[in-house]
Amino acid sequence: MEVQIDESIRNSIPNCRLAYITVTDVAVRGTPPALTQEFLELQAAVAKAYHLDILPTMPRIAAVRNMYKKLNFDPSRYRPASEALVRRVLQNKGLYYVNSAVDVNNYCSIKFLLPFGIYDLSPIQGNVNYRLATEGTYVNIAGNEVSTNHKPFLTDDAGPFGNPTSDARRTAVTLGTRNLLSVIYADEEVTDAELADIADFTADMLVRYNGGIITDKKIVHSN
User: Fold this and answer.
1) Is 50 in a helix, a strand, or coil?
2) φ, ψ at 69 (rounded to 5°)
3) CB pairs under 8 A, 24+ apart, for 63-67?
4) Distances from the Cα of 163 to the Cαs of 42, 67, 115, 166, in angstroms?
5) How far apart are CA 113 and CA 5, in angstroms?
6) Which among 19, 98, 102, 134 is placed 20 to 30 Å from 82, CA to CA?
7) Cβ atoms within 10 A of the Cβ of 212, count?
8) In whole angstroms, how far apart are CA 196 and each of 62, 122, 164, 200?
9) Taking the C-alpha atoms of 76, 84, 128 and 5 in order, what is their torsion angle to the nearest 10 degrees?
10) The predicted structure's pLDDT at residue 171
11) What is the 8-class DSSP label of residue 164?
12) What is the rounded distance in angstroms from the CA atom of residue 82 to the CA atom of residue 133?
């Protein structure tokens, strides 16, 4: 499987990059107590360091929002996953614990203030292309039909399955998932060295809590 960035994205964001990790032979389970503890410590640090009123102006959050705007993807209507998670923490709404893979994904998204996606690799057909989707719909994880029209999406031979805000039910990670694809959506201000470090941290954490073998870990450039 290859991951590519389409010209439709490249035209708006010349320095667009994704990092992706594939992990095979994982054992996804309920949220382990050690991960819950790490999450509680991270939430406490976030609550102490950030404030809801200034969140949109923080450099990393602002850079991700700017990335959305360049794609005509309204970050106030379609909030980046990282910002949405941090907002839940600052609003004392608590976080949803899903499973050992999804929770690692959300942990890293909050820690690094970047949108992360985690997908069941097995249903993905052919290569993955990050592009602006055409008219159509997909069924999201919540089971709702959502328009894909001119929104940025990871797509495969079967159609769109994920973006920096919302993912499809087709590739949702469950306790039955055995192979993972993790994608980090980087804004233009993240350096390649920073992105590589983030990918390394994420890969290590995925294996620590889900087992498995890292079979691929790459940074994809739009040029």
Assistant:
1) coil
2) -60, -35
3) 63/187, 63/188, 63/189, 63/190, 64/113, 64/114, 64/115, 64/164, 64/185, 64/187, 66/187, 66/188, 67/13, 67/16, 67/185, 67/187, 67/188
4) 24, 13, 9, 6
5) 21
6) 134
7) 18
8) 21, 25, 19, 6
9) 50
10) 97
11) S
12) 22
Q: Taking a C-beta distance cutoff of 8 angstroms, is the pair 35, 209 a contact?
A: yes
- Give the C-alpha separation, 4 to 33, whole Å: 36
Helix/strand/coil for 153 = strand
pLDDT along the chain (223 residues), means of 10: 95 95 98 96 95 92 95 91 95 91 97 97 97 90 89 95 94 98 96 98 98 98 84
- pLDDT tens-digit series, residues 93-135: 988 899 999 999 999 999 999 999 999 999 999 999 999 998 8
| Residue from 175, 191, 184 nearest 205 by CA | 184
What does pTM read for this prediction? 0.96
Q: What tokens appear for 134 in the block?
A: 């055409």
In angstroms, how far is CA 77 from the centroid of its own chain? 17
- Residue 213 tokens, joined: 């073998």
Instruction: Calculate helix-pair angle for 100-112, 192-210, nearest 10 degrees.
Output: 150
Beta-carbon contacts of residue 134 (< 8 Å; ≥ 6 apart): 148, 149, 150
